[in-house]
Amino acid sequence: MAHQSTYEPTNGFTRWMDSRLPVIRFAYDTILDFPTPRNLNYMWTFGGILAFCLGVQIVTGIVLAMHYAANTAVAFDSIEHLMRDVNYGWLMRYTHAVGASMFFLAVYLHIFRGLYYGSYKAPREVLWIIGVLIFLAMMATAFMGYSLVWGQMSFWAVTVITNLFSSLDTVIPGLGTMLVEWIWGGFSVNNATLNRLFSLHYLLPFVIAGLVGLHIWALHVPGNNNPTGVDLRDPAKETVPFHPYYTTKDLFAVTVFGVLFAYFVFYLPNYLGHPDNYVEANPLQTPPHIVPEWYLLPFYAILRSIPSKLGGVIAMFGAIAVLFFIPWLDTSRVRSTRYRPIYKWFFWLLVITCLGLGFIGAKPPEGGYVIMGQIFTAYYFLHFLVVMPVVGIIETPKARPRSVADSIFGEGGGGHTGAGRVNQPAAAAAEKR
Amino acid sequence: MTLFSQRGWRKSLTLLVAASAIAYAGPSRAAEGEGSHGAEASRQDWTFGGLTGHFDRAQLRRGYTVYKNVCAACHGMRLMYFRNLSQPGGPEFATGNVEQFASEAQVQDGPDDNGDMFTRPGKPSDRFPSPYANAKAAAAAQNGAVPPDLSVMAKARAVESSGAWYMSPFHWIRDIVTNYQEGGPDYIYALLTGYAEPPAGFNLTAGMNYNKAFPGHQIAMPQPLTDGSVEYTDGTPGTVDNYARDVTAFLMWSAEPKLEERKRMGLKVLIYLVILAGLLYLSKRALWRNVKH
Q1: Taking CB atoms and an 8 Å limit, are A80 and B151 in contact across chains?
Q2: Could you tell me if A256 and A65 are in contact, meaning their C-beta atoms sit under 8 angstroms apart?
Q3: DSSP annotation of A241
């Protein structure tokens, strides 16, 4: 929450700076002193984990770019040179490749945490929208990065995804083809395409970093949501300064996440990749199954579930576009799903649907997989367009604590996170609609 | 309550561990059934698997002998240099041996001071020689099928885990828990030992060979290994099984020459991070002890 600055410059230099560019005051207010709800659980550590992931990707990526050559003739071999002849090149590359997967794992948990606790609701709509923009930029960046390897899966994924735009030919004949050739810089995926993918892959992470800055700014105006979803009333009782309480907790969470990260980098570096990407790109030979990386599979499944090409493209982009409208699609006044007995079931149905879409995306589009993919796709959209507005209206929420302080200090509100659901008849009567 | 509460997390973690235990105890064959590709390969015991995996030097040396005497007739390894053969973490041949291997190859060099190209004996800094000048020449010599480069072959193939669709998550968990990254070697070994007479009624195209492990079971490559075809000098019996196993290990090393360095560092990093996480947890707990939350 926006709070009064308590920073006091203590020496000549900091006083001098403070009256010119109060950057030290800014850092103190936002990183050290920022009042943060006491009752956040470990699902709130993914913000810090994601900042860590972005940092890792940028640092390893800059080192990789020093050795990579964006030219179709040598791209594949330049990566193998890095793996074989550059000191710790294998470490940089595997960290970057696994890092992309870890980044998405964390971002998906972060998004579902936001959905569960209603973190997108007023006054945090802009915060949520910037988050969706970050997610979109991440997907574009990851896709372009995967193409740079210039293996078979890279090449054919680029071919398939860029070709999607040719579906616009059915709207205005020639438009799609023109657009695709403009994207390619030629009449097929070629050297010019690889060059622009590399250029954009280097640019977008910094766009993401800028968006992350806005995301944190938009977070610091209303302040953190919390597991009860109830607004803070008494910061003195309900919050602690971010440092040392949450810096220590986040650091612990980042380290635990680092164990998983390191396990994959050192022991399963190729587990999340596709073996075909160790075969150099060959425009004359199509692999039997073209699949994207795991984190894009749900959207790939939606794309393939619609029998028409243009329809599939619209559905795929619509699946992301719908996320922008969630703050207004959800009609419930209650933020936290913890107090929403009906919506709770639909939330977990959405989780299963997204996992199901990911599973279907990895399978060949045949037989029962097609029908399952269509059912999951239908529910994905129904969830946001029908379930969210309707359940919010018909549902009678459970009693919520009157304040965060009540959930912390009220009867039974000691010990650990998650025990804060205090049933207070008076409060319940007041809150019920 | 919900999965997001602490008790819920603990419960789901227990479930996950139980599920992996079930999956781990389950059938260990990577592919039992005949999937749409029909690739059949069972898991082999490799020295380079697991948390402390490493290469067997003698095996890599034998594997190089098999590659040089059999595979190299048709398959290049353009990412490999002779110098790699003496570097740490590989077969670690003596420098003298490597110079000798290299000198057996004739390498084109130049242009010289007169502007002419010339051939000279190879040096350790040269790449392994390619059997064909280019892919067209390879296709012309091999009945249209280009023998693929073998440099990273062990990472470019995998064993598809088949079975019922609902078993897939258990297979993923089992592979993660056992850090299974040897699908490529398992496939190559299965392919090299998978030649057999086609079953009755199998329609084998002329010029093709039947192989149990190859997708579709028809492979252009004729059976490359036969008992006794390569002479081993270290007393290891010259059987197809040994040749296949040794050359597969060699291909895994060529695909992943820094594997030993990676696994050694990985163990240190994991131990460090686990201790650090423990200390940070204690700090966090001490800090929050008197803060109701």
Answers
A1: yes
A2: no
A3: E
From chain B residues 158-187, the ones with a CB under 8 A of any chain A CB are: 158, 165, 168, 175-176, 179-181, 183-184
Query: What distances in angstroms separate CA A198 from CA A70, A192, B220, one per listed residue?
Result: 7, 10, 38
The answer to whether residue A129 scores a pLDDT higher than 50 is: yes
Q: For B22-53, write each residue's pLDDT tens digit.
A: 444 433 333 333 333 445 688 999 999 999 99
CB distance A275–B281 less than 8 Å?
Answer: no
Q: What's the average model confidence in pLDDT over A284-305? A: 95
Stretch among B3-17, B206-220, B227-241, B276-290 having the lowest mean pLDDT:
B3-17
DSSP B128: P
In a mutagenesis test of the A interface, which of B6, B271, B289, B293 is the best target, namely the one with the most A β-carbons within 10 Å?
B293
Count Cβ atoms within 10 A of the Cβ of residue A194 and give its class: 0-12 exposed, 13-18 middle, 19 or more buried: buried
What φ, ψ does residue A98 adopt, rounded to 5°?
-65, -35
- Rounded to the nearest 10 degrees, how much is the dihedral formed by the CA atoms of A138, A144, A148, A153? 100
Q: What is the pLDDT of residue A419?
A: 38
Helices (H) and strands (E) in chain B, counts: 9, 4
Picking from A74, A84, A337 by the largest number of B CB atoms within 10 A of its own CB, the best residue to mutate is: A84
Quote the tokens at residue B120: 């000279």
Cβ-proximal residues to B65 (8 Å cutoff; 6+ apart), any chain: B230, B232
Closest CA to B255 of B161, B184, B178: B184
Q: What is the ipTM of this complex?
A: 0.91
- Entry pTM: 0.91
C-beta of residue B59 within 8 angstroms of C-beta of residue B53: no
Give the B window 195-254 contacts with A, CB below 8 Å.
none
Cβ of B291 and A240 within 8 Å?
yes
Cβ of residue B285 closer than 8 Å to a chain A Cβ: no
DSSP state of B120: E
Structural tokens at position A111 = 């998004």
Residues 6+ apart with CB under 8 A from A244: B287
CA A53 to CA A24: how far, in whole Å?
25
Residue with tokens 């970050």, as numbered in its chain: A134
B291: contact with A, CB 8 A cutoff: yes
Residue A291 burial (CB count, 10 A)? 19
Mutation for B interface: A267, A338, A351, A372, most B CBs within 10 A? A267
CB distance A245–B51 less than 8 Å? no
Torsion of CA A263, A264, A268, A272, to 10 degrees: 160
